[in-house]
Amino acid sequence: QVQLVESGGGEVQTGGSLSLSCVFSGRIFPTYAMGWFRQAPGREREIVAYINWIGDTTYYADSVKGRFTISRDNDKNTAYLQMNSLKPEDTAVYYCAATNAVAGTTQARLYDYWGQGTQVTVSS
After folding, report:
1. I need a labelling partner for 94 at 20 to 30 A (CA). Which of 19, 103, 113, 120 fits?
2. What is the model's pLDDT at position 8?
3. What's the pLDDT score for residue 54?
4. Tens digit of pLDDT for each residue in 83-99?
5. Contact present, 52 and 70 (Cβ < 8 Å)
6. Are strands 118-123 and 10-13 parallel, antiparallel or unpaired?
7. Are 98 and 78 in contact (CB under 8 A)?
8. Could you tell me which residues are beta bridge partners of residue 58?
9. pLDDT in tens, 32-82
10. What is the separation of C-alpha 117 from the centre of its chain, rounded to a whole number of angstroms?
11. Beta-sheet pairing, 68-73 with 78-83
């Protein structure tokens, strides 16, 4: 059974940075694309970014493009989300997820496994 464990959330001021990590276990990591999603109170879960199985293709939501960077280390079974220039509207619970669609996808319903989530709070 696949397990995803996120870490790195917290509270920062506007303009600050945070780095999230997601450790994958239970299956062969390079056979999965990885995504980061977020959900703010009263809002639907939305895609933030994804990265394909080998790490050479990425996607970013327009709202985070140029500020966030997704990456993965297949030797460490870990996906990362580096978040810079954070804004109050980035406040949400952030989830990592794994999908068998190895090219990656923006559709949450196609992700097979999810982490427990980590809170990110950006204060103004």
Report:
1. 103
2. 96
3. 96
4. 999 999 999 999 999 99
5. no
6. parallel
7. no
8. 51
9. 999 999 999 999 999 999 999 999 999 999 999 999 999 999 999 999 999
10. 10
11. antiparallel
Calpha distance 94→24 (Å, rounded)? 16
Which residue is it, tokens 């996808």? Answer: 105
DSSP for the chain reads --EEEEE--EEEETT--EEEEEEEESS-GGGSEEEEEEE-TTS--EEEEEE-SSSS-EEE-TTTTTTEEEEEETTTTEEEEEE-S--GGG-EEEEEEEES-TT--S-GGG--EE---EEEEEE-
Question: Are the beta carbons of 48 and 38 closer than 8 angstroms?
Answer: yes
**Pairwise CA distance, residues 123 & 120, whole Å:** 10
